[in-house]
Amino acid sequence: MAITQRLLIRTARELHQRLAKPGYPPAIELPENEWRQLQKILGRRQQAIIRHWPVARRHCDAAAIQAIDALVANLGTMRNRLAADEPPPECSYREVYEDVAALSGEFADVTPDFTRKTLSVQTEPITLDGTSLGEFRIVVSWQSLSRDNFSYRIEPVDNQYTHDGSTSHPHVSGGHLCEGNGGYALDRATQQGRLFDFLLIIRSILETYNHESAYVSLDEWGGIRCQQCNEATAANDSSYCHECSDWLCDDCGSICHGCADLYCDRCVSCCEQCEVSSCEDCITNCHDCGQSCCSDCHTEGTCHACINEKQEDEAQQDDSPAGVHTSQLGEACLSA
Amino acid sequence: MQVLYINNDGGGFADYISLAPETTVGQLFTQRVKDPNPGNYLIRVNRQPAPSDQILREGDRVSFTPTKIEGARA
After folding, report:
1. Measured between CA atoms, how close is A48 to chain B, in angstroms?
2. ipTM for this prediction
C-alpha cells in the first residue's frame, strides 16, 4: 500500500528532525593489545637467548611472527578505514523525503505509525533454498533515531513460517538481525542518513542464506527441538516421552525394559539389580531391601538378590545337625 | 559532470564523483564494481530502477546494492 502525500510529508519531517544532525563514526583505535602481546613475546625470546634455550627461542620466534602479522593486519584495516572515510553528504529534508517516497516502489507496504514513532516496510514473501519464510516487516523506530544509530526490528508478518515458534529467519533472533557482511555498509548508510539504502541492504540480507552462520539451519527448519539435548530435528525423526510428552530426538530418551515405550531421562529409573532403564510403572521397590528393580529382577515385590539370600539362609538351616534347632539363643531342643 | 555514487557493497561508499559526459549506468558499473554481473545488484538512479544504457545526468544519485548479502549469527 502506497503512503499518502500528507503522511509522506509528515513522516519525512519526523525523520529529518533526527537525521539533520551529523553522526560520528566510531573512533579509530590503535592496536595496543597486539603491540603489548608482541612486546611480551620478544621479552620471553630474549630470556630464551640468555639462558641458551634454543627450542624455546624457536617457539618465541614463531609466536612473534604471528603477532607481527596480526599487528600488520590491524594497521591495514585502520589504514583502509581512514582512506575510505569521506565526509558524510548533507542529509537534507529533500533527501529524506525522496528516500521515504521511493520506498513505496521497493516494498509491498510502507506504514508510518505516529503513536509508536515507527516506519515499517514489508518485504515480498522470502524463500531461501526452497524454504518459505513468508513476508517480513522491517520496523525502524524514530524515537531514538540518529545518524549514529538506526534502531530497527525484524518482525515476521505470519508466524506460521517460524521455526519452533520463535525463530523467524535463519539470521534473525528475537527481532534482531545479525547483519554479517552487511554491517559496514549499514553503518555507512546510518552515518549518512541514507534510509532508503539502509532498508535495501537489510532486505538483501534477509534474502540471503549463509549456511555457515545461521541461528537455525534451513536443514532443520520446520523441525522439532528435542527438549533433552535442545537440538532441532525433523518431525519424522522425533518422538515424545510417554510420561511427560516432551519431544525427543532419535539420540535421546530410553526405552523402558518393561513396557518398551520411550521415556525421557527424567521419567525413567535405573534398575539397581541389572541397570536397565524402566519407567515408573514398571519399576518396583523391593519389600525387603528397598532397592529399585525392573520387572525381570523381582518376584512378587521381592528382588532376586533378597530371594537368593533367603534361599541360602534356608539351605544353611537345612544343612545344620538333625533334631537340633537353634531358634532361640541358649536353648537346645532335643528330639524325643 | 558530478554524480552522487553509492556502493552498498563491502564497507559501503557514498560520495560525489566526476564522470565524463554521456556516461551510462552500465559503464559506471563496469568502472566501479568488480563483479561482472549487474544482475547481482539492485541498480538505482535517483532511487528508481535503471537500465544499463541509461545516460547519467549532472547531480544524479546512482546506487549499487548487492542482491545477496550474507548475514550471520550474533
Report:
1. 42
2. 0.95
Q: Which of A121, A188, A215, A218 to mutate to test the interface with B (most CBs of B within 10 A)?
A: A188
Chain B residues within an 8 Å CB radius of A170: 71
Winning range, highest mean pLDDT, from A279-283, A323-327, B59-63:
B59-63
pLDDT at A24: 64
A133-156 confidence digits (pLDDT tens): 899 999 999 887 877 778 899 999
Q: How far apart are CA B17 and CA B37, in angstroms?
A: 22
Q: What is the dihedral of CA A264, A265, A270, A276, to 10 degrees?
A: 60
C-alpha A247/C-alpha B20 separation (Å) is 66
Q: What nine digits make up the cell of A142?
A: 524514530
- pLDDT score for A329: 47
Tell me if A10 sits within 8 A of A142, measured CB to CB.
no
pTM for the complete prediction? Answer: 0.62
d(CA A229, CA A232): 9
Name the one residue in this structure whose C-alpha cell is 620471553. A44
| Cβ-Cβ contacts under 8 Å for A259 (sequence gap 6 or more) | A279, A281, A282
The pLDDT of residue A154: 95
Tell me if A81 sits within 8 A of A26, measured CB to CB.
no
How are the residues of chain A apportioned to helix, strand and coil, as percentages rounded to the nearest 5? 40, 20, 40
